[in-house]
Design goal:
Largest sheet: 5 strands, parallel
CATH class of the largest domain: Alpha Beta
CATH topology of the largest domain: Oxidized Rhodanese, domain 1
Number of helices: 11
Oligomer: single chain
CATH architecture of the largest domain: 3-Layer(aba) Sandwich
CATH superfamily of the largest domain: Rhodanese-like domain
Strand order of the largest sheet: 1-5-4-2-3
């Protein structure tokens, strides 16, 4: 199943497409005001904090996976029906939209794609925007979990393959930490900032470039690979980039926000793995 869709392809599609606007940034504000300032025609706003994550103790991480039941209820609110094509996007290189992409695939819904380049690519291709809140007819999609690989905190501690840290390099090195209780990274992890998956226009780099990038980080066919970030959001983008490059990767949903809230978990700093 394709991961990306280009704006001209989306414009010319004759299939029923459900559009998800997943605008969100670390530290906020929530993206609903940006959505109302202009979104793809028919797109439904998706609240990442409220619909694409559960909430628990700090030891669970900032964005634990939602229950299948709550995700299904959200997907039905978005208007998703069996047999639909879903396209998610944001205005920041799909760093947030990839969370919706990954969650729907994890829940067994395969026909979901990312609009390559997001909102800016749509506008650059001549696409129009709307400014009202879209409330679709409820959908009937049925979801279940476990269709995408995950690892938990213990799996991250003893991961046998390549564990990629998708956060900014300075957070990996422990030079700064804007939100979580400790600075640094999981011992043995390799720095692989998510932003390096994108070109200057916010589109994913070609598959060949992404494959070379990940191979330089030690990823190989037949070698397990997993990704984490701050709270399991941009790590989904890393998983998408790995898939474009031809690698099937696992996600550590708890990510650094979970790891750094456990005092018994060791922390490394610096740039060396």
């Amino acid at each position: 199943m394709s991961i990306l869709i280009q704006a001209p392809e989306l414009m010319s599609s004759t299939e029923r497409v459900v559009l998800l606007d997943v605008r969100w940034k670390l530290g906020g504000p929530p993206g609903h005001d940006d959505y109302l300032a202009g979104h793809l025609p028919g797109a439904v706003f998706v609240g990442l904090d409220t619909e694409l994550a559960a909430h628990g103790e700090p030891q669970d991480g900032r964005h634990p996976l939602p229950s299948v039941e709550s995700l299904q209820a959200a997907a039905r609110r978005w208007g998703i029906r069996e047999g639909d094509t879903v396209v998610a996007y944001d205005d920041n290189g799909n760093l947030a939209a990839a969370r919706a992409w990954w969650l729907l695939r994890w829940a067994g819904f395969d026909d979901v794609r990312l609009l390559d380049g997001g909102l800016s690519a749509w506008v650059a291709a001549g696409g129009s925007l709307e400014t009202h809140d879209v409330v679709p007819e409820p959908g009937d999609v049925s979801l279940d979990g476990g269709h995408a690989q995950t690892i938990d905190i213990d799996g991250a501690a003893s991961y046998p393959g390549v564990l990629l840290d998708a956060r900014a390099a300075e957070r990996f090195a422990g030079e700064t930490e804007p939100i979580d209780p400790k600075a640094g990274h999981i011992p043995g992890a390799i720095s692989a900032p998510t932003t390096d998956n994108l070109d200057a226009t916010g589109r994913f780099r070609p598959a060949e470039e992404l494959r070379r990038r990940f191979e330089a980080l030690g990823v190989r066919d037949g070698v397990d690979v997993a990704a984490y970030c701050g709270s399991g959001v941009t790590a989904a983008h890393e998983v998408a980039a790995l898939a474009i490059a031809g690698f099937d990767a696992a996600l550590y949903p708890g990510s650094w926000s979970q790891w750094s809230n456990h005092d018994d978990r060791p922390v490394d700093t610096g740039t060396a793995p």
